[in-house]
Amino acid sequence: MRVHVVSDVHGRADALARAADGADALVCLGDLLLFVDYADHSQGIFPELFGRERATEFIALRAAGRFEEARDMSARLWEALGGEPREHIERAVRDQYARIFAAMPTPAYLTYGNVDLPRYWGDYVRDGHHVLDGQTAEIGGLTFGFVGGGLRTPYRTPNEIDDEEFARKVEAVGPVDVLCCHIPPAVPDLLYDVVARRFERGSEATLEAIKATQPRYALFGHVHQPLAARMRIGRTECVNVGHFRGRGRPFALDL
């Protein structure tokens, strides 16, 4: 059996529609939405609402670690736009999710990323889409465990949770053959983004679970250009499945 795995889709509905070609199932590790594209400032919800020039300013502030200034800038733009910000955001989010879930192949096993808004998913999942978080599924005779979301950061992305809540989901999954998370285990080489030149947050709970239970694979995304895309922790092969928006192709797992 072959399983294709993707993460960090960020709006790539065109490539997602082909992501399961040649596979028996698709696993998606989240981050379906694109709020702003650091490579192409014209793409995403933010530039759709405020324009490319403002998106470039916003990205520059965040890249420089000037988060309060970025939030102040965003607040001024929302005020100038008029109306309720929630209405504008909901309309843009729903539009993206409608396109993404329409393109999502079946069967697909999904968990959430740190930029996702889980409360909307139920309106768009189709038959054959299995959404799992702190839960397991049998695929090809192996047990896959799924842990979604990210941990708290200065970026304040929508689906960041406390370390304790994340750890409870890891514990609920228990020993599995394949552990699937959006974020990596807390290993520096897996967390460093060589283009952004910063460390992303990884999970200590995931790392401890890998050491204790030694799944066959630990799969994740989140870090778009990692210093190390894969490494072994004991018997476990840890794999960053790749930045799907940038690559447009899945990671293939033969079981």
How would you describe what is shown here?
- With 255 residues, the protein is α/β, with parallel strands linked by helices.
- The protein has one domain: Purple Acid Phosphatase, chain A, domain 2 (4-Layer Sandwich).
- Helix content is 33%, strand content 22%.
- It has helices at 13-16, 45-50, 52-63, 67-81, 85-103, 163-173, 188-191, 204-213, 244-247; strands at 2-6, 25-28, 108-110, 129-131, 135-139, 142-147, 150-151, 160-161, 178-181, 192-193, 198-199, 217-220, 230-233, 236-240, 251-254.
- A six-stranded mixed sheet has the order 5-6-9-12-14-13. A five-stranded mixed sheet has the order 4-3-2-1-15, with no helix packed on it. The protein has a two-stranded parallel ribbon with strand order 7-8.
- Helix 6 (163-173) runs parallel beside helix 8.
- The protein starts with a strand and ends with a strand.
- 38% of the residues are buried.
- The mean pLDDT is 96.
